[in-house]
Amino acid sequence: MKKAVFYILFFIFFCILQFFFGQFLSVKGVFPNFILIAIVFLALSRGQTSAELTGFFFGLVWDVFSTDILGGRVVMFTVIGYLVGMFAKSFDEDQAFTQITMVFFANIIYWLGFSFICMILPEGSGSYTPFVVTWAGSLKIAVTVLIAPFVFFVLNIAAGMFLPKTSFKQRKYSFISKG
């Protein structure tokens, strides 16, 4: 029961944070992609399936609220959950370097994939111009990457309150070891 409560609160919290408080947290139109950080957190700490499912639902909600291509974010967040989850066993999710690196690559994959989708289906892309690197876009990636370790820290505390320690993934790390 606590696990279900955790995932429901997790989903609601990040939807509210991204969609309703984004305008208050932005500096000159730039604010972090909290949903992307949440998906990477789930992929690293809970595994591929949790990240894929949560990414799908986050993408669906975001697509419903946006004027962009319906399904674009569903595909991208699901793919990011899959890819990061695939590499999760190789990294220690508690290391800030791992968090920063994974969120950075997830941002790049998101930008490339969403640009590709908008290039294929340009009629629904609104004001989005595919494959154009802008100052604001680069700054958004940087802010998202830099805030990721703090968000991971808070989420680890919340997960510890709701989920038993036995449900945390037990694994050996091949690239980055604890300690």
Give the topology, please.
Layout (H helix, E strand, L loop, with lengths): L1 H18 L2 H4 L8 H12 L2 H18 L6 H16 L8 H25 L14 H28 L17
Protein name: Rod shape-determining protein MreD
Main location: membrane
Keywords: Cell membrane, Cell shape, Membrane, Transmembrane, Transmembrane helix
What structural category arises from helix and sheet content? Answer: mainly alpha
What is the terminal-to-terminal distance? Answer: 33 Å
Tell me about the biggest sheet?
Answer: none
Strand-residue fraction? under 5%
Q: Please report the number of helical segments.
A: 7
Envelope shape: globular
Q: Which percent bin holds the helix content?
A: 55-70%
Number of strands: 0
Poorly predicted runs? 166-179
* Domain tally: 1
pLDDT averaged residue by residue: 83
What characteristics describe this protein?
mainly alpha, 179 residues, disordered C terminus, 7 helices, cell shape
Q: Could you explain how this protein is built, in words?
A:
Keywords: Cell membrane, Cell shape, Membrane, Transmembrane, Transmembrane helix. It holds the Pfam family MreD. It is a multi-pass membrane protein. This protein has seven helices and no strands. With 179 residues, the chain is an all-alpha fold. The protein has one domain. The longest helix has 28 residues, at 135-162. It is globular. The N and C termini lie far apart (33 Å).
